[in-house]
Amino acid sequence: MRVMTKVKSNTKSKEKTARISTIDPSRPALPDYSIYELSRAERVMCIVIGGFLLYSIGYLFYHQWIASLLIACGSWFVPGYWRRHMLNRRRAAMNLHFKQALFSLSSSLSAGRSVENGFREAVSDLRMLDPEAENDLIMELNIICARLEYGEPIEEALQDFSRRAVMEDITNFADVFTTCKRTGGDLVEVVRRTSTIIGEKLDIQQEISVMIAQKRFESKAILAAPVLMILFMNLSSPDYMLPMYSGMGFIISSLSLGVLGACAIWISKIMNIKL
Questions:
Q1: Residues near 37 by Cβ (< 8 Å), separated by ≥ 6?
Q2: Which stretches in the chain have pLDDT values below 50?
Q3: What's residue 275's pLDDT?
Q4: Run of H or E including 247
Q5: What is the pTM of this model?
Q6: Residue 177: which H helix or E strand, with range?
Q7: In whole angstroms, what is the distance from residue 45 CA to residue 97 CA?
Q8: Count of the separate structural domains present in the chain
Q9: For the stretch 139-166, what's the b/e string if a residue is b when 16 or more beta carbons lie within 10 angstroms of its beta carbon?
């Protein structure tokens, strides 16, 4: 009997090791939503477009190609700015889709479906909202469903997703869901209340984002106004602008361009509100 028990335990341990080794190699390939990597083409495009815009602004202020090229060297920092912008955009979209998935999961559990079928139904509901879209959350829900088919506990799949997402709402939901599953709580009520609370929080964040977006547009218009004014004066009265490109005009142009750049950095810091 001891030999048979030992053989059975060894067989189970081997099966468990094989199952874990089947799942683990795929984990490093899963996306990390706390970072965003630009492709080579995107990086080159950012440098080219940013260099062209900065060169145009430099030539507008100085009318000298050497000074314009020096200013265009600032395009080296454009990919970093674009990477942060795309990361924030990606995370905001995932936050919105996560709210919709929570409402779908809550409705499925209230209707008597199992947790596994609830996640599968959430994928179908998200695709109904946008049939042609394949967003990050749909991909993650498909990964969770695939892990369930391999026999992995759903709480482990959710915890792995929350670690890669690094988002407060997803982490809170994964912790509450895991605690409820392990302690035997009322999963339907917990998911319903959690989805309601997170949904209300996201609605407030969206309202704040709309107000911030309006102020960001106004700040961009204010920053573009001096450049457009100089362009208009160069096109309409070039003789009137000649003193700005010789003698003390270079110093005035440099000070104006420096103040404009400082204002752009200051406004971006003010508008960078963490919700």
A1: 83
A2: 1-28
A3: 62
A4: none
A5: 0.75
A6: helix 168-183
A7: 29
A8: 1
A9: ebbebbbebbeeebebbebbbbbbebbe
Q: Which domain holds residue 162?
A: 40-266
Q: Which two tokens stand for residue 34?
A: 């706390």
Longest CA span, the chain: 104
pLDDT at 47: 92
Q: Are 179 and 185 a contacting pair, CB within 8 Å?
A: yes
* CA dist., res. 96 & res. 78, Å (int): 27
CA distances from 272 to 167, 193, 266 (A): 17, 31, 10
Q: What is the total residue count of the chain?
A: 275
Structural domain contains residue 6: no
25 occurs within a structural domain: no
Residue 16 included in any domain: no
- The confidence score (pLDDT) of residue 65 equals 86
Q: Is residue 15 part of a domain?
A: no
Among candidate residues 1, 265, 97, 88, the one with its CA nearest the CA of residue 9: 1
At position 260, the amino acid (one-letter code) is L
- Decide: 119 and 145 in contact? Cβ < 8 Å: yes
